[in-house]
Amino acid sequence: EYQLQHGVIEADVKTAFKLSDNIKIKLVETVKATTGAKKVLLNEEIDTSLLAGLILSAPDMELDLSLKTK
Fold first, then answer.
1. Which among 10, 1, 6 has a CA at the least distance from the CA of 57?
2. Helix (H/G/I), strand (E/B), else coil: 64
3. Maximum distance among all Cα pairs of the chain, rounded to whole angstroms
4. In the 8-state DSSP scheme, what is residue 59?
5. 3-class SS at 24?
6. What is the mean predicted confidence (pLDDT) over 57-63?
7. Residue 34's CB: how many other CB atoms inside 10 A?
8. Is-above-0.85 flag for pTM?
9. pLDDT per residue over 7-51, tens digit each?
10. Are the CB atoms for 56 and 26 separated by under 8 Å?
11. C-alpha–C-alpha distance, residues 47 and 61, integer Å
12. Of 54 and 1, which is predicted with more confidence?
């Protein structure tokens, strides 16, 4: 609750492969612009069930750019 009051939110991102720093920065900027947050704490998880892409989840936001099947 402290984080929400101070404009800090957590976002979870599942990816097929480790994200580059540039991609992480762009994801954080996207979450900030969409949610109005001042700071975003990005939690990265490698999901081997994904063939490519990513799934981003944050409060009031979900972005699925993944490829799960062949």
1. 10
2. strand
3. 43
4. T
5. helix
6. 90
7. 14
8. no
9. 899 999 999 999 999 999 999 999 999 989 999 999 999 999 999
10. no
11. 19
12. 54
